């Protein structure tokens, strides 16, 4: 009888209490660390059948459902746990968290207040309430709660982490770093404070320190996908794009449902012009939308838009996006090949024709470029139609669509003008650039300064220096950091001096780096003493251009000649620098510079 009774008693105790709270916590943590959310729910559902009144099981099951975003079920099990133990402060806390996730932060605060009233000596409750108060805009109340948490338990690293996050969000990075450093001192084997301190450092552009911390976080715990995402962001800031891709891939290997990493990796692939790899990620993201993993409307719109824009081979954009990618990678023949395939399907697609024209332009095949631009303009109304149906412009105002359309037309006119300049057809170039200036939108990010610069350049070829200078002034007014306009204004100023004439002048082909090869006669300084101020003003323009871009060889080329006119002894240094930067310099200009090069 005693044995039977003992067995019954032991069974009753086990049935009532199950495993210890700590044991259940270890099981929960281990399953979450390997991303086994479904298995976590299944395990505790099985436990609940054995121990239906066990507070720890009910709480663990509630938490498991929160992790899976099953908020109603999470609330249900925490309410059941409260029936078993009405003094369960953590239950009130997590129900509050559920309401916060639903977007009802005021209701959440009521539960957080109840949690604190139930157990006023638990630091974590104040920390979470402080975080919620911050979300509600009560910064003073938030800081008060964080301070209270630390006062209750000054050796709890989590409290310092929470206050550190508060300080970071509130614009106090030094205080944030101090709190997170204290957390590291208290818990040097915890990856979490390193992870967040890395983020603070990155926001301060202290990239080396950020990288050191995130590496330490990964060294401590290599199972956290968020750490790889954080390091990928650092590598992206360092422009180490392949390393960023590798870390997003690691994050995905840790958590296959980490859709943020897929999105970020797809965006980097797109920047690197690897559209096929980008589309592979977007295809995976599409499956996440279909199975409900992604339900954020902004992400859904972004993903669907990208798929239609670069991944759908039944759309013209599939071909011209890849063509632009090859163009940007300087694989011009591949660009022409993909345009040829696309134009077989869409022979009058204006966008594709204009991009094909751009490829011929960069290859100096100006007649072929002009032919493409001509057909593109005949179908220009289709550009606006394509913009309207492009998912990337979904919800865009009619003004924005019109601005983008006008910008597309203006770009074509600019390119036609450049082709004609290189072919020596300055009247035609002048007509086209005027069309471009007429339709070019005055919006941020559109390089309208290039249009006035080009027209000013045409005026220089016509020896109409006053109008040329007016256009270069307008170009600089639009963008004071546009170096080519300063150099061209310098050319116009020098050329306007009565005693200075062109000795040689020829079109050179690359309008953005060396639009022309020019050489003036070099009279003595005394012969144009009255015009010396004009030359000094031209010299100043070249100096400004070089300050803006010290790799612009054309600026050194023109400045060297101006210095020679002004009898400045270091003019050879500029001409030699221009040559080293790839500018074609007249051999006669360098005759007296060979010796100077050896002495430099």
Structure, explained:
It is a single chain. The chain is mainly alpha-helical and 600 residues long. It contains 32 helices and two strands. The chain has helices spanning 2-17, 21-33, 37-50, 55-67, 71-84, 89-101, 105-118, 123-135, 139-152, 157-169, 173-186, 191-203, 207-220, 225-237, 241-254, 259-271, 275-290, 297-311, 316-328, 332-345, 350-362, 366-378, 381-389, 398-422, 426-439, 449-461, 465-478, 483-496, 532-548, 553-565, 571-580, 594-599, and strands at 502-510, 514-520. It has a two-stranded antiparallel sheet with strand order 1-2. Strand 1 (502-510) and strand 2 form a beta hairpin. Helix 6 (89-101) packs antiparallel against helix 7 (105-118), helix 10 runs parallel beside helix 12 and helix 12 (191-203) packs antiparallel against helix 13 (207-220). The protein is elongated, with a radius of gyration of 34 Å. The termini are far apart.
